[in-house]
Design brief:
- This protein has 335 residues and is of the alpha/beta class.
- The chain has 14 helices and 8 strands.
- The protein has an 8-stranded mixed sheet.
- β1, α2 and β2 form a beta-alpha-beta unit.
C-alpha cells in the first residue's frame, strides 16, 4: 500500500474504471480559479488536516512566485478568482501584498481563514494578527472558515482545546464589520468537516442546523455552509490507520461513488499552485506530489492557459473522496 492511497492494483479502487463504467469524462472545462497554497505554517495542527500544517512548518511562497502568480492573473481575464490557502495563509509575510495587488487588478480574492490566527498570532515571530478582520473588510475578501460543529466538544476535538471559543470571538468581530450580512456584500462562509470516519450529511440540512443554532445560541450569522469530505491523506490518514479504520473508510468512499458528483469535480475549473510555484490539478494532488505534466512539469514560470485546458487531469484513488455522496469540493457539495 502506498503512503496515502489504497492499493492501485485493486480494481475496486481504480477510479478510472468507475468513470468508464458510468461514461463520465473528467476533462478541464475552464480555469476560473487559481488556488494558491502559500504556506504550510499554521497556528493549529488539526487532526483532519491533509496538508500536515503546523506551527513548526517552514514552507512558504516567496515574493518572486507571488509576483509571477499576479502576472498570470493580470494576463488572463478568464481567471476571475484567487483562492489563498495554507496552513494559515495570513502567516505568509507576503500575504497582505498578495491580497491588495490581486484586488487592484480586479480579481475576487478568497481567503481560507481558520479564525483563531487572529488571536494566536504568528507562532514563530509572535507578530500580532489582530488587524486581520479590518484588513479583510477593507479589501472585501471572501472568507471561508472551518467550524467543525456548532458545539465546543466536536470542534475542539478536531482542532484543539479552546478553538471553539476563539472561533466564536472571531466570528463576532467579523459580523460586527458586516461579514455574513447579506446587505454588506462581505461574504463569510463556514465549512463543516465530519469529526471521524464519516461522510458529510446533506449540505442543505446541516446548513439549516448551523444557521439556527449559531444565531440562537451565539448571535452569529453567516452566508453559506459548505460540507467537505475529509481526505485520507497525511494526518487524517494516519489517524484512521491508528484506529484500524483506514480500509473501512476507503470502502465507504468507493461505495458512495456518485457519477453526478464526478462530472462536477473542482479540478475541471481550477488550478492549484504550490508554495514553490509548481502546478497541480487540485490541493490534494499537490499534497501527494502529483504535479501537472505537460511536455515538462508545469510551474508558474511556464503557465499557459490553453495548455491548462488541454491537459490530462491526474486521477488516483483519493479522487473517490471528491465523488462520494453529494460530492465534495472547496466550495462544498457538487451534486
Amino acid at each position: 500500500m502506498g503512503q496515502n492511497q489504497p492499493p492501485k492494483t485493486s480494481p475496486r479502487y481504480n477510479f478510472k474504471n468507475f468513470l468508464n463504467q458510468y461514461n463520465v469524462q473528467v476533462a478541464p472545462q475552464s480555469v476560473e480559479t487559481l488556488q494558491a497554497n502559500i504556506t504550510f505554517l499554521c497556528n493549529q495542527a488539526c487532526r483532519h488536516c491533509h496538508v500536515g500544517a503546523s506551527p513548526s512548518r517552514t514552507e512558504t511562497m516567496e515574493m518572486d512566485v507571488v509576483d509571477r502568480v499576479l502576472e498570470i492573473l493580470t494576463r488572463n481575464d478568464r481567471i476571475r478568482n484567487l483562492d489563498l490557502t495554507g496552513g494559515a495563509p495570513e502567516l505568509n509575510p507576503n500575504f497582505d501584498y498578495f491580497v491588495v495587488e490581486a484586488q487592484k487588478i480586479g480579481k475576487h480574492v478568497i481567503v481560507r481563514h481558520n479564525l483563531t490566527v487572529t488571536f494566536d498570532g504568528h507562532p514563530q515571530t509572535r507578530k500580532s494578527m489582530e488587524y486581520l478582520p479590518e484588513f479583510f473588510a477593507s479589501q472585501k475578501v471572501e472568507i471561508i472558515s472551518s467550524l467543525p460543529y456548532y458545539q465546543p466538544y466536536f470542534t475542539d476535538k478536531q482542532r484543539g482545546n479552546g478553538v471553539f471559543e476563539k472561533s466564536l470571538k472571531s466570528l463576532r468581530i467579523l459580523n460586527e464589520l458586516g461579514y455574513g450580512k447579506e446587505e454588506s456584500g462581505l461574504h463569510l462562509n463556514l465549512v463543516y468537516n465530519p469529526v471521524g470516519a464519516f461522510l458529510p450529511p446533506s449540505q442543505e440540512s446541516i446548513e439549516s442546523d448551523y444557521r439556527r443554532e449559531l444565531r440562537s445560541r451565539f448571535g452569529i450569522v453567516f452566508n453559506n455552509l459548505y460540507t467537505i469530505t475529509n481526505m485520507p491523506i497525511f494526518r487524517f490518514r494516519d489517524q484512521l490507520k491508528n484506529l484500524g479504520a483506514l480500509d473501512d473508510y476507503w470502502r465507504k468512499l468507493v461505495n458512495a461513488f456518485n457519477p453526478a458528483a464526478a462530472r462536477a469535480v473542482m479540478c475541471r475549473k481550477q488550478i492549484s499552485i504550490g508554495y514553490d510555484g509548481k502546478l497541480y490539478d487540485c490541493d490534494f494532488n499537490q499534497m501527494l506530489g502529483m504535479q501537472i505534466v505537460l511536455k515538462d512539469p508545469a510551474t508558474v514560470k511556464n503557465f499557459d492557459y490553453n495548455a491548462m485546458l488541454n491537459r490530462e487531469i491526474q486521477l488516483a484513488p483519493h479522487c473517490f473522496g471528491c465523488t462520494a455522496g453529494a460530492g465534495s469540493s472547496c466550495g462544498g457539495s457538487t451534486a
